[in-house]
Structure prediction request, 473 residues.
Amino acid sequence: MNHSRTAHDIAVVGAGAAGTLTALRLLHNAAAGRPAPARIWLIDPEPAGRGLAFGTDAPHHLLNVPAGRMSAHRDDPGHFVRWLGDRGGEHDFVPRGLFGRYLAESLETAGKHHAAPDLVRVPDRVVGITHQPSAASSAASPLSLRLRGGQSLDFDAAVLALGNFAPGLAWVPPELRASGMFLADPWAPGALATVPEDRDVLLVGTGLTMVDMALSLQRPGRVVHALSRHGLVPQPHATTPILAPATPELDARSGLAGLRRAVLRQIAYCRRVHGDWRMGVDSLRPVTSALWQQLSPADQARLLAQDLRLWETHRHRIPPVSARALRTAVDAGQVSIGRGTVADTKTTADAHGDVVEVRLDNGRRLRVGAVLNCTGSEADLTRIDDTLVTDLLSTGLGTPAPVGGGFDTTAGGRLRPADDRAPAPLWTLGSLRRGNLLETTAIPEIRCQADDLALLLLDRSALATRGEAAPAH
Ligand SMILES: Cc1cc2nc3c(=O)[nH]c(=O)nc-3n(C[C@H](O)[C@H](O)[C@H](O)COP(=O)(O)OP(=O)(O)OC[C@H]3O[C@@H](n4cnc5c(N)ncnc54)[C@H](O)[C@@H]3O)c2cc1C
Prediction:
């Protein structure tokens, strides 16, 4: 069934933080006098604003970015802090679930503005997209979105805010996968409830997800083992707010070796002058994407393999209170963090029930009641088990970024199609642009991308080209 078409319908696919911010900014900018679309459609079976990071209700899963940098509106940086203040909240690393509520409420409020276009919620998943380039010269819509429920909806443009996919499984031995004691996605609803109370646990991966899971699962009488190839754990934020230092003028065109030296010099300089390495890391944030794009594909691949993990543990930091809680659990012997990879596993049983025996690459053996995949969202689109992504790659409407990490996109986030396909009016943002931008996964970047997209999509003349020529946006 097709919905009756009104000119200029925009779809936002995915209602996590990125999709909610896009819909919010579309409503906001339209209400502020930009030409409004007929309707904005927000398509996701999940409620708005929550997604992977902000759907948790656990009070100890805290924001990893200070609240002062989490406003939904780049032109009103204090918006989230005021929202918290109105509810008597603290203003720093509050529970992430509160941010999900803030986004949902902000969207609802924006939708009530008398000048806002209609916001239509569709609780379904998009499983495929058809593009008809010839529709650009007729009155028909160029995009048709197929839903899991069987419906098709037509649009003039769509933003794919598909976010984080489930963690990759390439490392998982087949026996573990089949064991019933392997949690492929620890963020899946109810996943932690299946972890046996009286057993040790193994977390594979030592990033942000590991920190949350370790804090959720640690308790007297249990050891939470956390392992990764490098054993690196996210660094804590400073206990007092640090100043935003001046952005350095760096150039990566001489290659990765020169960039590494320049980055280390900048961090050493900030440590010497300002007393904190974090200022050096933060000072690079505005230029990270530009530096990344100056590197050759070979150097980008080397950076991903050799530098990314160390960079991320300093760049994506955890609240001091989470770092202290983790330290306390480690000191109490309830959490153990180290290097190692899973070589193979065997499922056996003892008096208390089933247990997984895990042999690590260093020969060490662990006996645990559950193994949690904390390796982070799978970034290689060709390995993702997602109907829509598979459809986009097979029809050529989207192509993977050259070094992986989401779709290949234009400067404005429009999907670059396969060589033999006309570009479709499809845009994306956030983690699906990681291969192109590197620095694109946190709210301060996503809210800017969402606002830029909203302004672009409300500009009918930009949409009128509908991309038969090579897309510039
Ligand atoms: C543990 C953790 C903590 C983090 N904490 C912070 C933080 O404190 N601050 C910060 O700035 N960043 C944080 N991040 C970064 C975080 O990834 C992003 O800020 C945020 O999750 C991005 O939201 P998103 O909408 O892109 O993706 P997601 O949250 O993954 O949402 C994607 C949505 O799209 C929907 N969807 C997917 N495919 C379809 C489809 N085909 N049809 C319909 N709907 C679909 C899904 O159902 C989902 O609701 C954290 C990340 C992690 C892993």
Observations:
- The longest strand covers residues 342-350.
- Residues 13-19, 43-44, 46, 51-53, 63-65, 96, 125-126, 161-164, 208-209, 212, 388, 430-431, 441-443 surround flavin-adenine dinucleotide (CB under 6 Å).
- The chain is about 35% helix and 15% strand.
- The mean pLDDT is 92.
